[in-house]
Amino acid sequence: NAGVMQNPRHLVRRRGQEARLRCSPMKGHSHVYWYRQLPEEGLKFMVYLQKENIIDESGMPKERFSAEFPKEGPSILRIQQVVRGDSAAYFCASSVGGSREKLFFGSGTQLSVL
Amino acid sequence: SQQGEEDPQALSIQEGENATMNCSYKTSINNLQWYRQNSGRGLVHLILIRSNEREKHSGRLRVTLDTSKKSSSLLITASRAADTASYFCATGRIKAAGNKLTFGGGTRVLVKP
Fold it and tell me: What pLDDT digit, counting tens, does each position of A59-77 carry?
C-alpha cells in the first residue's frame, strides 16, 4: 500500500509563472490536507478537502491560491503568478476520515521561485 | 502565540541520554500527535494520544498529556544518532472539520555520537 505520493519533489518557477502541485492520497483515504512549511518553522494549515468538496480553506491566501480534489485523480494545489514569498515546502496529508484519525504525510514539494 | 508551542526550540544531547521536549496549547483538543521530520523530508507520525488518555508508550517513546495544564511531553529514552531530527506536536481541535491539525514550531534535536 503506497503512501501519500506528491510530485514533483522539487519545482522551480520564475516570478509570474504558475505552479501546480499534485498529491495522491493513500489508497482508501478520502480526506486530503495541504500544509505549507517555511524554513525553520512548523507546518501551517492551508486547506482541507474531501472528494469534490472544499471543507475548510481558512489557511489559504485570498488570491492566487486554489485547491481541488476531483472525483478521479490527485488533489491539486495551484499557485498562480508565483512570487518569491511562495517559496516553501508544501506538504500533503491524507486520512481515512473523521476527526480522531492520524494524518499520513507525503514527502512534500519544495517550491523555489526565482 | 500559536497553538502547539514546543519547548525547548533546540536540544543537544549525547547518544544514550534521554531527550524530553514539551508542547503547550491553548484550546480544547480532540487529540495530540507527535511527528518527526528529518532535514528536507516529510513528516513521520510517531504517536497519537487522545484527550481522554494521560500517557502512551511506543518503543522508546513516552508521551504524556495533561489537559488541565494544556500540555504534553515527549520523552525519547536511550537516544541514538538516528533520532536527530525536528519534532513537532500537532493538535486536533474539538469541532474542527476533519482532523485539521495545528502544528507548533518544533524542537530541533541533535544527538551526538
Answer: 999 999 999 999 999 999 9
DSSP state of B82: G
Tell me if B49 sits within 8 A of B56, measured CB to CB.
yes
Residue of B nearest to A105 (CA): B43
The average pLDDT across B5-18 equals 91
Give the model's confidence band at A30: pLDDT under 50 very low, under 70 low, under 90 confident, else very high. confident
3-state secondary structure chain A: CCCCEEECCEEEECCCCCEEEEEECCCCCCEEEEEEECCCCCEEEEEEEECCEEEECCCCCCCCEEEECCCCCCEEEEECCCCHHHCEEEEEEEECCCCCCCCEECCCEEEEEC
**Residue A36 distance to chain B (closest CA, Å):** 11
Q: Per the CB < 8 Å rule, is B100 touching A45?
A: yes
Q: Give the mean model confidence (pLDDT) for residues B4-23.
A: 91
**Residues forming a β-bridge with A17:** none
